[in-house]
Amino acid sequence: xxxxxxxxxxxxxxxxxxxxxxxxxxxxxxxxxxxxxxxxxxxxxxxxxxxxxxxxxxxxxxxxxxxxxxxxxxxxxxxxxxxxxxxxxxxxxxxxxxxxxxxxxxxxxxxxxxxxxxxxxxxxxxxxxxxxxxxxxxxxxxxxxxxxxxxxxxxxxxxxxxxxxxxxxxxxxxxxxxxxxxxxxxxxxxxxxxxxxxxxxxxxxxxxxxxxxxxxxxxxxxxxxxxxxxxxxxxxxxxxxxxxxxxxxxxxxxxxxxxxxxxxxxxxxxxxxxxxxxxxxxxxxxxxxxxxxxxxxxxxxxxxxxxxxxxxxxxxxxxxxxxxxxxxxxxxxxxxxxxxxxxxxxxxxxxxxxxxxxxxxxxxxxxxxxxxxxxxxxxxxxxxxxxxxxxxxxxxxxxxxxxxxxxxxxxxxxxxxxxxxxxxxxxxxxxxxxxxxxxxxxxxxxxxxxxxxxxxxxxxx
Length: 461
Fold this sequence. Notes:
Keywords: ATP-binding, Kinase, Nucleotide-binding, Transferase. The protein is of the alpha+beta class and about 450 residues long. Helix content is about 30%, strand content about 15%. Among the domains are: about 30-115, Phosphorylase Kinase, domain 1 (2-Layer Sandwich); about 120-315, Transferase(Phosphotransferase) domain 1 (Transferase(Phosphotransferase), domain 1). It contains twelve helices and eleven strands. It has a six-stranded antiparallel beta sheet with strand order 1-2-3-4-6-5. It has a three-stranded antiparallel beta sheet with strand order 7-9-10. Strands 8-11 form a two-stranded antiparallel sheet. The relative contact order is 0.07. The model is unreliable at about 190-200, about 310-355, about 390-395, about 400-410 and about 420 (pLDDT under 50).
């Protein structure tokens, strides 16, 4: 029993379309040859179905124009022109249309090859942008398809990612098929060239050439502009012009200047040659734009020595491995650590404490040695030595133990060595040894000294 694919309502065998939403009931047989199996996609003008050619047992795609549009002479003529244009171009990168007809209720349809793949729009929705090594082959195939259409006097007028299908064919991945010539225009001098009324604006605003947005005369150079927009989007992940609404976007196409792709995405390292190529295609004046052949040659020069992307088993299953990561740079060979050397805070603190402790012990030892030598000089009448001034505060020295007087007179010891920066006082001048911080404490010997000391002063204690 026929069933509506939209609302799932069932109807009698003599009903072909759902009265609720106008969808064709499935399964349905068109002209006794094409059985509609399931919808593949829908657009503003019609629906595309997966179908089977009953005679050849072959899967095909059928595009069915909506009923109300099929009865409109302008839309009906444009739909027929799409089928005729695609079938007459006969290029490997353009979808092949094999049949055109009407249903018993008057709806137009045409039959085309079944494309098993995904659109460039779906790929960009997932990947956002493509590297040059993958983007360039896709864009070059789009250029070849449009060149073939222009040779036949046909302007596509709706070049966008959704109308570029990517297939896996002949062992090659990303094999391009350009589809949807529904708003294509036959250039002046060709049959059907008067189909589009003067001032009519047809196309998608994001990819529309300035003269197309203004309702002016459109020729093959409008497709060059659209390819420039497509290249910008594929290589950067964003459109050169995008307003808050359709009219704002169209106004930008008429007046605004696009940023170079490398400036828009400096993180991608895009070459300046790509900037010059894309901006030339986006020229406001159609006469300033390159031809598609020149644009394609410029694309090919961006990736010299490229080869077609070969299909691998991983690509066939949808699991495409990533490119091997670049080897990390070798570390610099440095014989010694460069200044400044950064160490941990804990290490710095331990080093700092060790240095302070060493200075403190060394300072106390030096004071004890100098104090003993000075006391010996005072009590023995020899020359005294002035100790060096210590700038840093030090702890008070421990009490000096009492000196035990020798039983017999000993020869006078040689004076302690004096640093070079200190002056030795005259031998005949007697100096008192004092210490600023803290003041020294005189130590009285337990036993009176014996010896030849003639000028010893009385003990003040």
